[in-house]
Structures are given as structure tokens and as C-alpha cells.
Amino acid sequence: MVRLALTRAFPILFFSAPLWLAPLWPAPLSAAPPASAQNPYETDRTAIRVGRALFETRCAQCHGGDAKGISGPDLTLLWAIGTNDDRVFQTIQMGVSGSIMPSSTAPDKELWAIVAYLKNISTVPPSQNDRGDAVRGEELFSSTCASCHRVNGRGGHLGPDLTRIAAVRTREMLIRSIRDPSASVASGYRAVTLVTGDGQRVRGAMKSEDAFSIQIVDTNERLQGYLKADLREVIRGEQSLMGVFGPDRINDEELDDLLRYLGTLRGAVPARR
Hints:
- There is one protein chain.
- By secondary structure, the chain is an alpha+beta fold.
- It has three domains: 102 residues, Cytochrome c-like domain (Cytochrome Bc1 Complex, Chain D, domain 2, Orthogonal Bundle); 81 residues, Cytochrome c-like domain (Cytochrome Bc1 Complex, Chain D, domain 2), CATH 1.10.760.10; 47 residues, SH3 type barrels.
- The strands form two sheets. A five-stranded antiparallel β-sheet has the order 6-5-4-3-7, with no helix packed on it. A two-stranded antiparallel sheet has the order 1-2.
- The radius of gyration is 21 Å and the shape is flat.
């Protein structure tokens, strides 16, 4: 077995805008706004609509039509880790050094529209999880979820960090991810089983892969790297590593408590600038 460092960074790729998008901008937005930490189009429905069209044309090839990632990362999680609007804008505008993502020469208003669209599909109001008991929810999280998930730096690492998940995922999406976790598995958490040369089977979540190697976090939360030439087989699973939590394991009242607790965590991660 060969241990490998996990250092891969995924780029965001942008292309030039098609001419047919120009008529979508209303006259009041003709002048490009100055870059600032506050997105000037955050609540502008027209700008958000334009941002969606721009995103689908320029970004979906790598990030998917829903922005949840294909070869590029899940952009709807940017706000979950505390990234602010200005940082997203600057990343799009300046590109990522050492990656295939170039700097952008598009007008600021187009870049802000893309940021507005991404934030619009990535954040939800606190009122979505305003029922249930947060104290009981915290106890349930500690006993049932913390072995794989972490909040505020405490807990397991096999599953995603849930510190701000209620701020970026709707109540319906959270319920589905608990009741039917295999319905949608985020990139970086897809199940894989590796069969080594001596027949041992190592199961975990795939983190990175290239033509010669594969890196996973195994079920013991160890980051492991293998050369493919040393493996007998790579079995890509269709099911999530997370078990199904139906009403027999977490009833509806307990589910309300858990979601209420997660809803209290929004903003716990400081914004990164």
C-alpha cells in the first residue's frame, strides 16, 4: 500500500458570454457596480435570472446544472463553509492560480449576477426549521450522528460537516438526506470498495482519483492512498455509506428536534475573507 497526500484542488471554468444574454439586462443595471463585500444584486430577481443563464452557459459543464459538482466542486456549499459573496466574486474574476480556471474579463455585473444566483440556490431562511426542541435535537445528534458528522469542529469526519447545513439546504432536502441518503450523494462522499492485491476489502468514501491512483477515507476515518496497479478491483457503490434513518430509527418528532438543532448552528462558522 502506498500512502498519498490529498492535495487536489478543483477549478471553476468560465467561457465567454453569448450575445443573446445581453437583452436580459434592464437599463438600470447597464453600469457595472463596484466590487464590494455586499452583492448589489443579491435580491434582484432579474439579475438572479440572468445569473442562472450565465451559469448554465459558462459553468455547468464542470459544476453541473444544479451547481452541485461534476468534475468541479459543489458550489452550493460555499456559503456553508462561511465564504462571503466578495470572496466568490474575486475567485471568479481572478481565477485560480495553478488550475485550468482562468481569470475573467466579463463585466462585474455579470459576475455579481452569477454570485447572486449561486447564493439564491444555496441559502434558506431560518424559519424552515422553527419547530421541535433544539436541546433534544442536540442530544440526538450526539448519540446518532456525531460518529460520522461534525459540528463546530467536534464529531466524525466520514460524513460532511453539518455546522451550517441548515443554512444552505432546505428542510425537504435535509429530510430526504436522512430518510433516503442514497437518493443524492455529494461528490467526495461516494462509497467505494477497494480490493487489494492480497484480497482485503477496504470500504470508504472516495476523495480523489486520477489515472494511476485513488484516495479514500476509510470507515475508520483514515485517509488512504493506493496505486491502482496494486489493486485487484475498484468497486464503486450505488448506495451511500450512511444508513437509512426511517421512522423506525428516528420518528417525525425526533426529526423535528434534530432539524431545529441544526437550524440553530447557522452562522457558527465565521465568514472567510
